[in-house]
Amino acid sequence: MSARAIAFPPRRGLSDRDCGYFVLGTRAGDLSRTAIAATASPRSELIEADAALTCSVWFLATANAMFSLVSLPAGWDSRSAPRIERSMVERALRRLAGVLESGTTAPAVVPTISGGVQAEWHMGGLNIEIEFCPGREAYVSLEDLREGTEWEGELYPNVNRLRAYLGRLGEV
Amino acid sequence: MPDDPSIPDDARLLRRVIPEWIVADENTNSKRVSSAAFCNSTAEDGTEEGMSVFLEYILIDDARPATSVLVGYESNGLIAQTARWVRTWQQGVVRDPIPEEIAHAQVMGPKNSNTRRKLAKIYEWIFIP
User: Fold this and answer.
1) Are A97 and A132 in contact (CB under 8 A)?
2) What is the domain partition of chain B in residue ranges?
3) Please, what's the b/e burial string for A101-119 (b: 16 or more CB within 10 A of its CB; e: otherwise)?
4) Alpha-helical segments (H) within chain B
5) Minimal Cα–Cα distance from A112 to chain B, Å?
6) Tell me, what's the ipTM?
7) How near does any CA of chain B get to the CA of A42, in Å?
8) Which in A28, B35, B79, B123 has the greatest CB count within 10 A?
């Protein structure tokens, strides 16, 4: 069992009191400290992350799903797909932490044939996919089934555009 | 892009789908195949190949059910698309018989994120694991 530190950006506007989460050795509102949470991945990884993140709705479920993909062997597609590296998963989690809100529903996570991971939501009248591939900027695509519109592009310049839709993911 | 015109537009292409590519769709209350599944493969020497599929009409000629391509891959799902649909998105279909499966074929052509999502819009489930 090993602890892997992930340097997530500090989250503003949250406190460990708001999250109902107690972290040994920290003071109320001290978000610069980290929490350690165990994942349910086959290697039982320990993830060290910002305390606010570990109590967000999406983080642990997503980290579990992504780290479980790390155990896929090379050729997991029955062809020659490369293994998914831990660094790839950590980068994806880091990028998601900079985009998603604390209450955002956890995405489904799937492996990509290039050795990357893809987070996706199909709910609230939306189909959203964020693809994380080695050596490339994350790429987002969104389809709004209610409005009949869709768009796509690199994640970084479209973060605010994406955030405008995240609140809808929890709607029935 | 390579395309074999002798493969008719209404030919059904079967694709095995690993369980990791099957996700819940709460918009339709069903299971769906992630767009990540509609991708080209990479050969052992690193060269990109097409998307691996099986021609259903060859299986039928051989008096075999579509699910026969799941032997040895029992945890996988199986979907079908028409050659017409993949050709709509600038893809070609070529035969590629391999020792273990004479019905093997490939869907050729670049598959960026947009193309994968388009390809993923229409398919029929043959077997849901």
Assistant:
1) no
2) 12-127
3) bbebbbbbbbbbbbbbbbb
4) 56-61, 83-88, 113-119
5) 6
6) 0.91
7) 15
8) B35
Q: Residue with structure tokens 């994968």?
A: B116
Q: In the structure encoding, which two tokens stand for residue B97, read together?
A: 């018989």
Element (H, E) at A126: strand A126-132
Residues on chain B touching A111 (C-beta within 8 angstroms): 20-21, 36
pLDDT digit string (tens) for B95-115?
999 998 999 999 999 999 999
Distance from CA of B60 to the nearest CA of A (A): 24
When pLDDT is averaged across residues B110-126 and rounded to a whole number, the result is 95
**Do the chains contact at A118 and B43, CB–CB below 8 Å?**
no
Task: Look at the block and give the residue holding tokens 């190949």.
Answer: B49
* H helix and E strand count, chain B: 3, 8
In terms of Cα–Cα distance, which of B43, B125, B18 is closest to A112? B18
Element (H, E) at A50: strand A46-50
Phi, psi of A70 (to 5 degrees): -65, -25
Check residues A37 and A102 and name the one with the higher pLDDT.
Answer: A102
The candidate with the shortest Cα–Cα distance to A144, out of A162, A125, A131, is A125
Q: What is the pLDDT of residue A57?
A: 86
Instruction: Pull the structure tokens for residue A138.
Output: 């994350």
Percent of chain B with pLDDT over 90: 91
| Residue from A78, A105, A165 to probe the interface with B (highest B Cβ count within 10 Å) | A78
Where in A6-161 does DSSP place strands (E)? 34-38, 46-50, 108-111, 117-123, 126-132, 139-144, 149-154
Evaluated on CA atoms B118, B33, A43, A45, the torsion sign reads positive
